[in-house]
Specification:
This protein has 946 residues and is α+β, with helices and mostly antiparallel strands. It folds into 6 domains: 2-149, no CATH class; 159-309, 2-Layer Sandwich (Alpha-Beta Plaits); 352-492, GAF domain (Beta-Lactamase, 2-Layer Sandwich); 518-689, P-loop containing nucleotide triphosphate hydrolases (Rossmann fold, 3-Layer(aba) Sandwich); 692-761, Orthogonal Bundle (Helicase, Ruva Protein, domain 3), CATH 1.10.8; 790-945, no CATH class. It is 46% helix and 15% strand. The protein has 32 helices and 25 strands. Strands 13-12-11-16-15-14 form a 6-stranded antiparallel β-sheet, with helices on both faces. Helix 5 crosses helix 6, helix 10 runs antiparallel to helix 11 (355-370) and helix 27 (846-853) crosses helix 28. The longest helix has 48 residues, at 470-517.
Length: 946
């Protein structure tokens, strides 16, 4: 019969008693109460002596703690003479015999173990044979434990045993209210000993260090090898002052006398960490050991004291000796888990997954490794907010995606706390709340930038994350964040590569188109002379300024210069300065850094950098804001620039071609364009004449466009019909080549036969009224009329304004008298017609048109675009035609210089609306084409003026 009894002690809640066999157990261990009574009356033993049972054929053997294997008895020869030494610094813990439990053996009844009978040779032999197997097994167990846990060089327990025992000692100190200290000492520059004398000599020196330390320490002090030439000591029942005394004795013992027959001198540094009973709390052994390591690291710094004691985090700034101390805790299950997570993280670093795939892999690994019920991944968004990017949970043992709506407010607040503090945070259930919720939030930070927050949540007792894992989770978050940053960078590179690929494909298509259309279609001597100049300057890097009205082919001429130059294999980048908002033109040209302004979520190279090695065409450069012109001037001069939000200067090799329909000299005189930039651009000026001044080109261009559009739109038209050529030549073409191209394209689309007719061409009525000059082979454009005298102009304008008021009043009266409740936006129509009429009368020159209307040119251009877009979408009713005629008459009468024609015309309409629907502001706002507050503001202004 065999019985095993393990009493309750710190870490074990209940006593354990178990029996194996067919007979009754020895009376001492018959049941739990009897066993506890036996334990209370048993004298303190050293864990090695057996005692007989009350039965003659029974015996009880104490089961020693594993720690007792390392604690030698003071009676051994190595501790001889210590009884005569001065009193120890503190007595050993009383009543703490190193016994884990008892083993009771009951032999067959014919075997008697009494002292008298045991002396008989036969029975003694039988007892020895019976105990031989047990002794062999115990010896085998001892050797196995020693071989597994001991350092092979010094015979001391290793680092894992040190942490395991430290955990036990913290528990005991917490229960009996005794202080505890850990001491680490290290031999300075011990690697030099190995290098100079060899490894064998160094090993002998280390064994001598261990021997001196064991002689100095008391028998209950546990000495371990922490690693290399570093050793640790657990000082039980010892506070900070006692630990300092031990450190001083170790310094004197270890460094006082040279080693190996006085051949080697060694000096030592010592780090101490101590806790009093009221400081222990829930201190983790890993953190406790980390304090000692930090103190030793401080002691090893140049100029520091040789003994350093950890006090209130004063040594935390030092570089830790063991960077993986939070990964290796002494708990095998937890260490295996941590190593698995670190190994998986290494795989993530080598991964080329997209950011979302990486997030899914991380959440899956963490959920399974930590037995979490939910793992969420939050990303910072605009401002200080966090957005749940992905969440993974478990349902019926399988991983499932979690609906973001199910994530609680408390969980989101945990993620916010971790993001604000940049450190992991943890919350668990309240005391006495079994099965409560455990939540841990881990920020992913790289280079002081918060990339994301991982949130882990699960049921207490099931999820394997607790407060002691926060340091490890912080360390784990670093490489995960690095992997995420790498994935995001790879994604950005892929996107840039895709953009670059599309740009190259578009450039290739454009190049093929340019090669097919590189021939400048012309027949006029003016264009022939211009192309001779282009041929001369094309293969140089001189800056070219192309002047001409809109639609004359300035961009085509720039493409020709580029194709004739040595830069033909590099990109031609076109920047339409008039189409880009003034607030973005600088970023568009020079690029910007991420975060340089609101909305700059990614870095942009800019158009100038994209054109590196090639040519940049700055179209409509007259629209460029003055604040950008100075920066462009420096680039044109020096060929380098600085991106928005950056301090780095970038140099590019770019040829600059500028184009404009403005008179830049006049713009310089009026202060709207920098004179130094104008002169810097005006190195090679090329003036493209309007189409009306080179009528020889009209039919050449018309036939060219016919050949292009007929196959494209699968039309049979191949020739110009009767009267078409004459109509084309007689028309003044205010829109120049662009207008000609669009009219031919529309005529081809509308044609049904094999010739292009006048009906399909649909030139404006009266557009062919110009007459041929006497003796001229081609018609000439109409000459501008002489300037109208101011007095006559004022009279014509007044009558035109009166006609506009009457016409608007009639139309408003007709509309408001009808039963309809849906009113057309007459104000928008009036505004658009004025802008379009002014643009047409000014020869499609925006500057002249804006002066007719009394508007800034930028405002006019913006309204012109809106008017052109709406004119294609909205068809005016026939009732509106009188207004269009009056508008044309009004603008030809030339209103007063500086008068805001649009504002005065709107006021005329507001007066008419107010007369007919004075008590219906909603109807008035609809007729004016504005919001209700704006309409009320117009009515108020009208009343104040009256």
């Amino acid at each position: 019969m065999a019985s095993v009894f393990v009493p309750s002690w710190p870490g074990v809640e209940h006593a354990i008693l178990t029996h194996s066999g067919h007979e009754a157990a020895v009376p001492e261990l018959a049941d739990i109460d009897t066993a506890l009574a036996f334990l209370a009356t048993t004298p303190t033993l050293d864990g090695t002596a057996a005692i007989p049972s009350a039965l003659s054929n029974g015996a009880l053997l104490p089961i020693p703690l594993v720690t007792s294997l390392w604690q030698e008895s003071p009676t051994t020869s190595r501790f001889a003479g210590r009884a005569a030494s001065p009193a120890r610094r503190a007595t050993d813990r009383q009543g703490a015999a190193p016994i884990a439990g008892w083993l009771a053996l009951r032999f067959p009844s014919d075997l008697v173990l009494s002292a008298a009978v045991a002396a008989a040779p036969a029975n003694g032999l039988a007892l020895g044979q019976s105990a031989l197997g047990l002794a062999a097994r115990l010896a085998s167990l001892y050797l196995f434990l020693y071989d597994s846990l001991a350092d092979p060089l010094t015979g001391l327990p290793g680092r894992s045993v040190l942490r395991t025992l430290l955990r036990r000692e913290l528990t005991l100190s917490r229960s009996d209210g005794s202080p505890l200290s850990v001491l680490l000492f290290n031999a300075d520059d011990f690697a030099k000993v190995n290098a100079r004398y060899g490894r064998d000599v160094g090993d002998h020196a280390l064994r001598e260090v261990v021997s001196r330390a064991q002689t100095t320490l008391r028998c209950t002090d546990l000495l371990c090898r922490h690693g290399a030439a570093t050793f640790g000591v657990i000082l039980t029942n010892s506070g900070r002052e006692a630990a300092a005394i031990v450190a001083a004795k170790l310094q004197a013992s270890l460094g006082g006398t040279p080693y190996l027959d006085e051949r080697i001198e060694l000096s030592f540094r010592i780090g101490i960490a101590s806790v009093s009973p009221d400081e222990i709390g829930s201190l983790d052994p890993v953190d406790f050991m980390g304090r000692a390591e930090s103190a030793l690291a401080v002691a090893r710094q140049p100029g520091s004291a040789r003994v350093c004691t950890w006090r209130d985090g004063a040594a935390e700034a030092a570089e830790p000796l063991d960077r993986l101390r939070h990964a290796f805790t002494g708990d095998q299950d937890r260490d295996y888990r941590n190593m698995g997570l670190l190994w998986d993280t290494v795989g993530l670093l080598a991964s080329t997954s997209s950011p979302l795939d990486l997030v899914k892999r991380v959440t899956q690994q963490l959920r399974r490794a930590l037995s979490a019920s939910m793992v969420g991944f939050f990303e910072p968004v605009a401002g200080e907010n966090l957005e749940l990017r992905y969440a993974l949970g478990v349902l019926d043992g399988a991983d499932v995606d979690v609906d973001p709506a199910t994530v609680t407010f408390q969980q989101r607040e945990m993620a916010r706390r971790a993001a604000d503090s940049r450190t992991p945070v943890w919350t668990g259930p309240l005391p006495g709340e079994p099965g409560g919720l455990v939540t841990c939030a881990v920020p992913l930070v790289v280079d002081d930038t918060l990339l994301a927050v991982l949130l882990l949540s699960g049921t207490a007792g099931y999820i394997t994350v607790d407060e002691t894992d926060l340091r490890f989770m912080a360390g784990l978050g670093g490489p995960i964040g690095l992997a995420l940053e790498r994935a995001r960078a790879a994604e950005r590179r892929r996107q840039q590569d895709d953009l670059e690929k599309r740009r190259l494909v578009g450039e290739l298509k454009g190049l093929r188109t340019a090669l097919r259309q590189a021939r400048v279609v012309h027949a006029s001597p003016q264009m022939e002379d211009l192309l001779v100049t282009v041929h001369r300057v094309a293969d140089t890097d001189a800056t070219v300024l192309i002047l001409g009205e809109s639609g004359t082919g300035k961009e085509m001429l720039a493409q020709t210069i580029h194709q004739m130059s040595s830069r033909r294999n590099k990109p031609l980048v076109v920047v339409d300065c008039g189409a880009i908002p003034s607030t973005l033109i600088e970023s568009e040209l020079f690029g910007h850094e991420r975060g340089a302004f609101t909305g700059a979520v990614t870095k942009s190279l800019g158009r100038l950098a994209q054109a590196d090695g090639g040519t940049v065409l700055l179209d409509e450069i007259g629209e460029l804001p003055l604040e950008v012109q100075s920066k462009l001037l420096r680039f044109v001069q020096e060929k380098h620039f600085t991106a928005v939000g950056s301090t780095l200067v970038r140099r590019v090799d770019v040829r600059v071609i500028a184009a404009t329909n403005r008179d830049l000299a006049d713009e310089v005189a009026n202060g709207r364009f920098r004179g130094d930039l104008y002169h810097r651009l005006n190195v090679i000026p090329l003036s493209v004449p309007p189409l009306r001044e080179r009528r020889e080109d009209i039919l050449e261009l018309a036939r060219h466009f016919l050949e292009v559009f007929a196959p494209k739109y699968q039309k049979a038209v191949r020739a110009l019909g009767v009267g078409v050529e004459d109509a084309l030549v007689r028309y003044s073409w205010p829109g120049n080549i662009r207008e000609l191209q669009n009219r031919i394209m529309r005529a081809v689309i509308m044609s049904t036969g094999d010739t292009l007719t006048l009906e399909a061409l649909s030139l404006p009525i009266g557009a062919t009224a110009s007459t041929l000059a006497s003796g001229s082979a081609f018609p000439i454009a109409e000459e501008p009329q002489a300037a109208t005298p101011p007095a006559l102009r004022s009279a014509d304008a007044s009558s035109s304004w009166a006609a506009l008021r009457d016409t608007l009043d009639s139309i408003v009266s007709t509309i408001t008298a009808s039963p309809t409740t849906t009113y057309p936006p007459l104000g928008r129509w009036l505004d658009n017609d004025l802008v379009l009429a002014a643009f047409a009368q000014a020869g499609h020159v925006a500057r002249r048109a804006s002066q007719r209307l009394g508007l800034p040119e930028t405002t006019f251009v913006r309204r012109l675009r809106r008017a052109q877009n709406e004119a294609q979408l909205v068809r005016r009713p026939s009732e509106w035609e009188p207004v269009a005629a009056v508008v044309d008459r009004l603008l030809r009468a030339r209103p007063e210089d500086g008068q805001d024609v649009l504002a005065v015309a709107e006021r005329c309409l507001v007066e008419a609306i107010n007369r007919h629907v004075p008590q219906k502001p909603a109807a008035g706002a609809a007729l004016l084409g504005t919001s209700l507050p704006t309409y009320r503001l117009r009515i108020s202004s009208l009343a104040e003026a009256s």
